[in-house]
Amino acid sequence: MLGNFIFLYNEDRKIHSKMTLEEKKDLWKKILTALEPQMRSSDFRTWLSNTVIITLEHDKLTVGCPSDIVRTQLAAKYHQLLLKAAQGVEPNIAFIDYEVDNSLADGGDRVVSLGTITGVIKRALRKEQVEGVRVADGLTTRMLNPEYTFENFVVGAEDRIALAAAQAVADRPGKAYNPLFIYGGVGLGKTHLLQAIGNQILKKDRNKMVIYTTSEKFTNDVISAIRGGVKKIDKFRAQYRKVDVLIVDDIQFLAGKKSTMEEFFHTFNVLHEAGKQIVIAADRPPRELVGLDDRLVSRFQSGMIADVYIPNLETRIAIVQEFVAREKILLSSEIVELVAKSVKTSIRDLRGIVTQIAARVRLSEQSSDRELWAPTRENIIDVLVRSGNAVVTQVNVQQSIPVESLTCDDFVRAAADYFQLNATEIVGESRKKELAHARSLAMWLARSELNFGFEKIGHAFGNRNHTTVMHSVRKIQEEIDQEPNGVTLEQLRALKAKALGAN
Ligand code: ADP
Ligand code: MG
Q1: Is this model's pTM higher than 0.85 or not?
Q2: pLDDT at position 371, please?
Q3: Ligand 1 atom 1 nearest Cα
Q4: Which ligand is nearest to the CA of 252?
């Protein structure tokens, strides 16, 4: 196996530049084959398409990337995996360097076609799944991600109940709360909690059959069972009903899918009656799941319902610290706080920012010729602005009272004053454009500046449904994102100043 390369290194480094294109492709293909099962296949395709080996000199492999984004991602996120995979194939490799070569973007002869790899991988992955988590024959499931544990779930006041419920379920599956229903917006830790439950149960008892699936995956399973005829349906039912713990993520996507809901309803009942644990997550509470069978909704309501919120500033700081520790980089507490203050949309976004920062820090550490990038305040603000998060620093105004002491009403009054509208009408029913806009701005401020949950904001704004609030807040966010120095941001700044009495 590549023995001749090893021999050549020791002889004369230069000879390596003579590694032929075919040899490079062959080596890269082997490395990719080793790497693929360890990545999500969408990530694998996204980040490894059109990458190549540029050189292998001595113990250093230089990987060519079609763009700067790919280079950053590989260096930041996949470096360890890639290095391990490379060493598995070629133990001499000690370093990997990443270079951008834009001409790779169009593919061409130098590139290994990923299609030739995935077949091998699928098989390997399936084998690993069967070995890793006990899965019934032919039952498709996604592996639990071992990264999602209770230990690295940082808990704030907002999530305490959800975490406690999840832990109780993991400790006594089928006995504590059944079903457990967790809901909340995107990127707030639902999947993390669900997977932590699965991981914890398996940690204690490897023989438990834990299935983590999404409602989309469940739907696909149902569809393919139906296509396969009676026998296949019976098999499908039998398989799902054998599990000890059924975890279904993003159940909202079952809406409107009649036969899938029917199947799920029966599976649910069988498992529930047998005392098997069911855990469900959704983006909203059961009663708001439009398009879902009433009988399913009532089943969900019969158990424990807990929500996850965007955490308050202190918790966000703790979360950023956790992410920073995971990335093994150093950030000053001032920077940690700046990031935690600025990113209020979701924990996923917080994670994204820390990953980006870590990528830059690492790239800068690795290279001697590239210019040094340090996580200074200016640089971090730059990262935040680029990812559409700098609102906090931009909305900052001279203030005499802490913004935390404000309420929704303060923003409503500020909007009324600024736009010369009636405050009661702003929280009222009218859909008139100017009222709706003033309302949305005030909601965005309540969300962003006060960290209020959507439910709470809905309540303060004439008892509106939380999805309506989410929609309005998102609309304003999109306006800011599209035009980072536009009118909307100007208005938000003015409203905030008014609410703070600063003008
Ligand atoms: P959701 O399923 O609600 O959309 P995820 O569970 O996928 O969100 O969370 C997004 C990311 O944020 C994941 O990387 C997850 O590990 C991380 N995360 C979410 N909540 C927490 C938390 N409380 N502590 C630590 N990490 C968290
Ligand atoms: Mg999720």
Answers
A1: no
A2: 63
A3: 187
A4: 2
